[in-house]
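QA checklist item 7 of 12: single-chain prediction sanity check.
[x] sequence parsed
[x] length recorded as 648
[x] structure emitted
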Amino acid sequence: MKVAVDTGGTFTDFVWREEGALKIFKISSTPRDPALAILKGLEELEFETLIHGTTVATNAFLERKGEEFVLLTTAGFEDIIFIGRQTRPKLYDLFVEKPKHFITPENVFGVKERIGVRGEIIRALEEEEIKRVIREIKNRGLKSVALSFLHSYINPIHEKMLKESLEKELKAEVSASFEILPEFREYERTSTTAINSYLVPVIRRYLETLKDKFPQKQIFIQQSNGGFIDLKEAQKYAIHTILSGPAGGVYGALIFGKSLGFEKLITFDMGGTSTDVCLIDGGLPFTKEYLLDSFPVGIPVIDIHTVGAGGGSIAYVDAGGVLKVGPQSAGADPGPACYGRGFLPTVTDANLVLGRILPERFYGGKLHLDKERSLKAISEIAQRIGLSPFETALGIIKIANTHMARAISKVSVERGFDPREFVLFTYGGSGGLHACALARDLGIPKILVPKFAGAFSAFGLYFANLIKDFSQTVLIRLEEKAKLRDYLSELKDKALRYLLKKGENIEDYEVEIFADLRYLGQGYELTVPFGEDLKRAFEEEHAKFYGYVLYNHPLEVVTLRLRIRKGTPFAGFQVEERTPSFSHFEGKIYTDKGFQDIKIINWEVLKEGESLKGPALIIEDFTTLYLEEDFYLKVLKNKTLLLERIES
């Protein structure tokens, strides 16, 4: 049996298949030691394969809890990691603060060597220099080392020599840039490699806990590109796990949406700690310019935008008397005020006070929510701004919605996409409570909500396959066809060797090839699928992004990219049918119009083909959908809900 586990900031979700149907459950996360929740959840399950989405690496970096390491770079270029790029995060903020760095200057060593821009050796790496470097690292007592030499992407001989010596003499964990990111732009390559070194010891210790507990099981880790890798590879390439959990949800939305005939989706994943949004236009969107707390990560990751607005986002009144929400979160511990462990008013407390969450039905009735505690926590804020607790709760929801609408606009409107042409694919434990308001504000005509929305990222993990990306910077003219073929052949050979080493059947894999192109002289490039007419593909992409084409200007191929993907077709699924604890009843919620009657319906009793007009609350063990009065829903297969707005 295969089990998928997604660790979130508030809950840890489990998905597996039993008697042909997918089964789902959640337990509270254990942020201080994420493995504890996983081990507890797996106690009762007999499984052979575990696929895991984790935020351990991301959280370790954001909290600066990685391992101290040494960065070795070409002598004279020791400050690259600190100088970065000239762009400012906030152009007009004179007091902008740089994020805390993850390495100190004392741990950056220059190495006497030099490779030229064409790969020629300008200054050879001498044996005495290698011995000197090893002595210095030994004196520092550090075991994690990052290597990033100038132009090593085109000739890695010096990095290979030093890596071999460090592993042999010091038994060091070495991250070499020619393996992590064999591409040009030394700052991005150095940053990516250094982050990997910083995180490798953390992710290794975490994964060894799982391996020690389940030594006979197959364990795979979700990557940021939507596929998974085995445990050994994840321990070596920690950088590939930075968007591990959220990537599972986006991949799940892609295959789930396609199975229902929807290929243009905006994913909206609202959990307890944050909200992740992503735009899907027929396929997974990737970016090579991801920033992890302002530091560049050059590997291909699914283009997900995160905003600090979740169910646990804390509401407060600032020094100027203005009501604000987030980005600070109450997380799983102490959690929202209604959990009874703290007294922080959150978005979840606001939804509870407004009647959108039923305390006796939350988490399948297994987790008691204290509504009076939520009301008291929000009342304290209400007194400071001169509103009633219910008006304040409504204000908290509207502010959170504004944050999330801005995030959706960032991945759609700001990139030239019209959100009205897309379907809002909603999941996460809190997503269904806010989907109608967001769709209305952004003009999105339809909303899709899967029945198991509260554990949907784990669903995506369950159906994920092995994906591996390869890349190589080439910097040649487009018309240099022979060189292009040679470089492409080398990249294919590299992928082939990888599969053979893994013992995989080559016939089981699909191959996708892409090229980064730019007009000669441009500073940045665009990625297009590799085909017969690269020029035309690039011009179409350039016109889309920049609004013009230079028809007679020469083109440069900057980087070639190859992705291998295990081509197991999506065979569909069936969701577990649960015995409903109730059918429906009447309740009350608070809206802009005051208190209103509302239908409260158990998700389990809905039948395929059935239609329903709002307002209504659709209750499931791990999520609630608030169907607002200007929307109606239709029940699709597997009790998936399709919402559409009623035109006035």
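[x] summary fact logged: The chain has a mean pLDDT of 92.
[ ] second reviewer sign-off
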